[in-house]
Amino acid sequence: MEEKDEITKFVEKANDPQWWRNISDELNNKNVRLSKGDLQMILRIRQGKVADKNFRMDDPSFQIEYEHKELIHPF
Questions:
Q1: Is the pLDDT reported for residue 61 higher than 70?
Q2: How confident is the model at residue 64 (pLDDT cuts 50, 70, 90)?
Q3: How far is the CA of 3 from the CAs of 41, 46, 55, in angstroms?
Q4: At a CB cut-off of 8 Å and minimum separation 6, what does 51 contact?
Q5: Is the pTM of this model over 0.85?
Q6: Do 25 and 32 contact (CB within 8 A), yes or no?
Q7: Is the separation of the CB atoms in 33 and 21 below 8 Å?
Q8: Would you list the DSSP string of the chain?
Q9: Rounded to an integer, what is the distance from CA 67 to the centroid of its chain?
């Protein structure tokens, strides 16, 4: 990805009111604009909630089962 100088970045910010939604994806070598859903997911994660608002922790299908064994080291 081509590195931009500070003046170019400043002009792009001045012309785009949604500049704060842009992130650079270095793995795929492109710039990405975050959607409203992406921003809501990030907000939920920062608040310590589950990322997907439709996920129900009290759902019986979501159960972590483990076998209790005497272990040398505690978890």
A1: yes
A2: confident
A3: 29, 30, 39
A4: 41, 44, 45
A5: no
A6: yes
A7: yes
A8: -PPPPHHHHHHHHHH-TTGGGEEEETTTTEEEEPPHHHHHHHHHHHTTS-S-TT--TT-TT----------SS--
A9: 33
Could you give the CA distance from residue 32 to residue 19 in angstroms, rounded to a whole number? 11
CA–CA distance, 40 with 47 (Å, rounded to integer): 11
pLDDT band at 1 (very low <50, low <70, confident <90, very high): low
**Residue 70: both structure tokens together:** 């005497």
Angle at 38 between CA 32 and CA 39, to 5 degrees: 105
**How many residues can be counted in the chain?**
75
Amino acid at 35: S
